[in-house]
Amino acid sequence: MKNRALAALSLLVILTLGLSIAHAEDPKTRGKAGDTLTPLAMGNTWVYASDGEDLVTTDRIEGVVLFDGQPWHLLRSYEREKGQPVEANESLEMDLWLAHIDGHECDAFIEPADSEEESTGLKLGAVSTYYRYPATAGETYKPSKDDAVTVMTVVALNEKVKTKAGEFDCVVYKETSTEEPDFSFTSYVAPGIGIVKQITTDAEGTYTAELISYTLVED
């Protein structure tokens, strides 16, 4: 009876281990198609501060427009001096449009109008997948077929980053340029939260921007 119970217990352990292995995620890949990297809801706001600068940058989702039947969300950036109220924000005029298409996060800028008559219409420029998600560790890709010099690399999948806004588990993306060997732009992105830290390196030095607060509105 005792031997039979031990055999049954051993079989249960083997089956449990087998199921755990079968359902375990690939340690080299994080996320699946349709998962949200940057939440796109009207009013979502991210506030950043840079080291060595008396400026605060605010990114906010402020609009939704249909392009070819697909909802694109307007991400507008503002800047103000530290200590000033939100009302002091001034637009950086760097509007970026974001969308979730076929399970992936895509981004694009608006193309300038060819003439004054077309200035009231909106037309998306080249669409890219800047932060590819799901992400695979070590993966290298070009975010846009129209950009021959930018190279993105997935450096890490689960890096802990602590900022004034909290501690986050991030996917790390590094942008380099084949035309500028001294340049790199590293982004730490927490799935479901957005960008929490960015480090820019060029010939003049290294600059860091971190998330100090954020507001996510339920969509």
Report how far the terminal alpha carbons are from each other. 58 Å
CATH class: Mainly Beta
- By CATH, the topology is YmcC-like fold
Outline the low-pLDDT stretches: 1-25
What is the mean pLDDT? 85
- The beta-strand count equals 14
Which H/E pattern describes the elements?
HEEEEEEEEEEEEEE
Radius of gyration, rounded? 22 Å
Strand content: over 45%
Number of structural units classed as domains: 1
Q: Architecture in CATH? A: Beta Barrel
Estimate percent helicity.
10-25%
Oligomer type: single chain
Attribute tags:
mainly beta; YmcC-like fold; 12-stranded antiparallel beta sheet; two-stranded antiparallel ribbon; 14 strands; disordered N terminus
Structure description:
- The protein is 10% helix and 47% strand.
- Strands 2, 3, 4, 5, 6, 7, 9, 10, 11, 12, 13 and 14 form a twelve-stranded antiparallel beta sheet that branches. A two-stranded antiparallel ribbon has the order 1-8.
- It has one helix and 14 strands, in the order αββββββββββββββ.
- It is globular.
- The protein is mainly beta and 219 residues long.
- It has one domain: YmcC-like fold.
- It has one helix at 2-23, and strands at 29-30, 45-50, 55-67, 70-81, 90-91, 96-101, 104-108, 135-136, 140-141, 150-163, 166-177, 184-190, 194-202, 205-215.
How are the elements arranged and paired?
Layout (H helix, E strand, L loop, with lengths): L1 H22 L5 E2 L14 E6 L4 E13 L2 E12 L8 E2 L4 E6 L2 E5 L26 E2 L3 E2 L8 E14 L2 E12 L6 E7 L3 E9 L2 E11 L4
Antiparallel strand pairs: 1-8, 2-3, 2-14, 3-4, 4-5, 4-6, 6-7, 9-10, 10-11, 11-12, 12-13, 13-14
